[in-house]
Amino acid sequence: MPLDGLDTGRVENETPEMAARREAVVEASPAPQFFKLRGELVKQGRTGKTVADTGNMWVNLKIYAGGGENGLHNHTAQDHFHLVLSGSARFYGPRGETRECGQYEGIMLPAGCFYRFHATSEEPLVLLRVGAWVKDKSEECRLNVYGDALPNGSKANGSLEVVLRQGEFWGAAE
After folding, report:
1. Distance between CA atoms of 93 and 33, rounded to whole angstroms?
2. CATH number at residue 53
3. Is the domain of 21 the same as that of 50?
4. Strand pairing report for 57-64 and 125-133
5. Is 0.90 topped by the overall pTM?
6. Within this chain, do residues 15 and 59 fall inside the same structural domain, yes or no?
């Protein structure tokens, strides 16, 4: 269907030249990405799933078993935030900062900011994590406070074998 058949923001008295230019501009623009937040709950460990990604910004759904945690670290090339969707978590900074976050509360973390957290609820912790590159992706490192790499799935980062709660899901319907 030509774009003229849609609400494309055209102006009144649009000339054929303007219409052609408008259609070309709209046709060259990226399409929106629609997504759902849905993930299988865990008995042990944690899962993460990217649900949308533009190349510059991404949305992850992260699910942690009650008591799940990660080690103190930073991300050198990305700003990001965590928003608690279900359960609760305690976030920590390297200077003694602490904050308990419940449903619909979160933390904004600029590139280079050290933090860690652990789930404080008995129920699984469900987080929305949104990140955006502030430097070239190739410069991204996940570092501990000594400046050493701290891989996401490492034991030093609190990673455990994932045990799913088979057939139990959080979020949107399929």
Report:
1. 34
2. 2.60.120.10
3. no
4. antiparallel
5. no
6. no
